[in-house]
Amino acid sequence: MPTLPHQDKFTGQVYHSSELDGLDAKGKRIVVVGGGASAVEALEFAVNAGAANIDVLSRSDKWIIPRNVVVDVLLACNIFGQETILSFIPETLLRKLFYRDLEDIAPSGKGLFTDTPMVNSDLFELIRAGKARWLRGDILSVEEDGISFNHRAQGVPKSGPGHEIFVKADIIIMATGFIRPSLSFLPQEVFEPPYDPPNWYLQIFPPAYPSICTNNSTFVNAIGTVGNYHIGIYTRLLLMFLIDPLSRPREYLMKRWVDMTRIMKRFAPTGAFDFFTYAELLYWFVFVMVFNPFRWKWAAFVFFGLGRVLPMAVVDKEDDARELLGADSRSSVSGN
Fold first, then answer.
1. pLDDT band per the 50, 70, 90 thresholds, residue 329
2. How many other β-carbons are positioned within 10 Å of the β-carbon of residue 155?
3. Which of 206, 293, 209, 313 has the alpha carbon at shortest distance from 247?
């Protein structure tokens, strides 16, 4: 857990957002440090726990979108996986119809399709009801009973000029969020540019190593609507590569797929693999399945987890044929 400037002066309690179970916050002044999904969850915890005052201190702005299936699906349908000339339409609609009177805390100069948005329909109502404040700015120092804070206006960059305020606190919650798993145990060559993470095949398979699947370890930012559905697909792709030699991609074609995606997203404000939408991700999956005919038999299994008996039987027959021909059934590789 990171520490704040002069945190040792604070006479209250400091917790990480993952340590809130059983915490007595009733009647307390709560300060949440962070501006992501973990901060929103900590805020909701404080509201439900009966906190007297709740302030969220965020260094940067993140887009917040409603927890609405229709809206989320429409946003995720941007198959280009990047900002386009039409991106101003959903951004304007969100500001006018969702943020409304709280448009001041919407990101300024930051496109919707550049960063992972927070999905929450209750946050703004909590702010409007006076149950919480969302403050943009920089922490200057921690004092005995709170935090000195540089409150910045919309559009002012981190550490830019602002108005110094003091935010009182009995409890500080550090909402630092997701800790990325380490990849240091992998072979050194997978980190060599220009094919270093996240610039890998389907973002998670290092070229030349289709037997390595780094689920959630190379993820950067995305807009999605289907929870962990893609994790299952990635896992089943790995199983297909391990079981079926003819389905495995070759290093050359894995790198060419990365190059192709870079070219397609060369105008994106982020790196080609630093942001994607679920529509783009599904396009990736469909493309790699269709490209290689030996993967067709696995389609139902890869996408839905169904029908593994038929492809397994086919692989067994292919293994038998290779044995008859004197080939090593587990060393053959095929196309992209």
1. very low
2. 13
3. 293
